[in-house]
Design goal:
With 132 residues, this protein is α+β, with helices and mostly antiparallel strands. It contains two helices and eight strands; from the N terminus they run βββββαββαβ. The longest helix is centred in the middle third of the chain and has 11 residues, at 81-91.
């Protein structure tokens, strides 16, 4: 049986940025606040996803991302959720940035790819909610 999950995605308002800081950097105060925020430390970097307007201009960052929240809930061990969303985008040459949390997932697309990405996702059977 070939069951592909059908996901509902809710767009988040505003633009987001993905910033890169040195691995030993403290968590930056500017990252915290309204909107989706993710801070991840590895031995190579401190990665910050937050509203683009909060990222200082002198910080290395990829800007201009639109974020979409996967509307759950999903069982913690559910499989194929993220793959079902990124596959149609990847197969069409659209780059994605995905952040997973305990309760869910967030998809980020470059603003320039948003209209095409929405069409591809809807064509794959997913539901994209209007901006609330």
């Amino acid at each position: 049986m070939n069951h592909r999950p059908r996901i509902t995605l809710a767009p988040l308002p505003s633009l987001y940025a993905v910033a890169r800081l040195a691995p030993s950097s403290p968590f930056p105060d500017w990252a915290d606040g309204d909107g989706f925020v993710s801070v991840t430390r590895t031995s190579e970097e401190l990665s910050v996803v937050c509203l683009e307007a909060r990222v200082p201009p002198d910080v290395q960052a990829e800007r201009g991302w639109k974020a979409f929240r996967f509307v759950g809930p999903f069982a913690f061990g559910a499989t194929g959720i993220v793959l079902s969303v990124i596959r149609p985008l990847s197969e069409s040459g659209i780059g994605v940035f995905v952040v997973s949390t305990f309760d869910g997932d967030h998809l980020l697309l470059q603003e320039r790819d948003t209209a095409r990405g929405r069409a591809l996702l809807e064509g794959a059977g997913h539901t994209l909610l209007p901006l609330a």
